[in-house]
Amino acid sequence: MAPQRISPSVVVETEHYGSNNSAIIGTDGVILVDAPHLLSDAHAWRTYVESFGPIRFLVHSDHHPDHTIGNFLIPGEIVAHAETRRRLATEPPSMEYLRDLLGRLDPEGDHWLDGYAVRLPTVVFEDAMTLHLENVRLELKYQRGHTRNSILSFLPEEGVLFTGDIVCEAGLPSFQDSRLVDWFDALDVVDSYDFEIVVPGHGQVTDRAGVARYRDLGRQVVADVAERLGKGQEKDQIVAQVRFEDNIHVPMGTNAGYPDDLIESFQERSVARIVEDLQETPGLVHR
Ligand SMILES: [Zn+2]
């Protein structure tokens, strides 16, 4: 682990395989944003952050496994959008999927899978909510984007915005759970915040220019798909041919990464999503 102090109260770990994990440290406890993907990272992260105080809240930016799996090993109230709770309750990854995936990504964490169950959020909201520690205020806001249940978390006193996968510095995540209009709207909302620092869902801590670079990456894929639609290509052909760089699920350091067939299916479903949304709303190419 190599956690970085990015502002007076915030420590971020960007080197866990799976997602960025943040700790907001107050005088009377800690708020975490997103849980490690790997159970062995979750165990180590808990031990580390508890050195600053008790874990009071764990916020989930969405329901995806790479941001929620590790919550099993972390105490505190779990805070999320109401739809994140519904989706974790009704479409959790199967044990078979978890055993296959984590057996590959995290062989050392294997023993925690016995008796494993994702923890469901205990505190949910629809539009907005504020979490308080004695000297810290974290403002949570519902914002459809990367998923229909994504949220933004803002620490106004320190100008830090935690975007989850609404912004990723490492490159584009999957689009399969996004609607394109929401994807762009969410970036407009991010831009409207008075922030200095962005903690993205994946990749290095960044700033306003990093948000602009991320928007450009999305625009490039959308432009590619739009051009092919303009030439009369069929959806199947576009889905088979258009690819964007995946820096999120690939092998990293000593980690084996996701299986190739899973990465391929994320790409196919992402491109299919973009094709469908552009067919319905061609004007999105100008966002
Ligand atoms: Zn993610």
Give an overview of the whole structure:
The chain is of the alpha/beta class and 287 residues long. It contains eight helices and twelve strands. The protein has helices at 39-50, 65-68, 82-90, 95-105, 180-192, 208-230, 235-241, 260-280; strands at residues 4-7, 10-13, 21-26, 29-33, 55-59, 77-81, 123-125, 128-133, 136-142, 151-155, 160-164, 197-200. The strands form two sheets. Strands 1-2-3-4-5-6-7 form a seven-stranded mixed sheet. Strands 8-9-10-11-12 form a five-stranded mixed sheet, with helices on one face. Helix 5 (180-192) links the parallel strand 11 (160-164) and strand 12. The longest helix has 23 residues, at 208-230. The termini are far apart. Zinc ion is lined by residues 19, 64, 66-67, 165, 173, 201-202.
Q: What does the largest sheet look like?
A: 7 strands, mixed
CATH architecture: 4-Layer Sandwich
Shape: globular
Order of H and E elements: EEEEHEHEHHEEEEEHEHHH
What would CATH call the class? Alpha Beta
* Number of discrete helical segments: 8
Calculate the terminal CA-CA distance, rounded to whole Å: 38 Å
* Integer tally of domains: 1
Tally the beta strands.
12
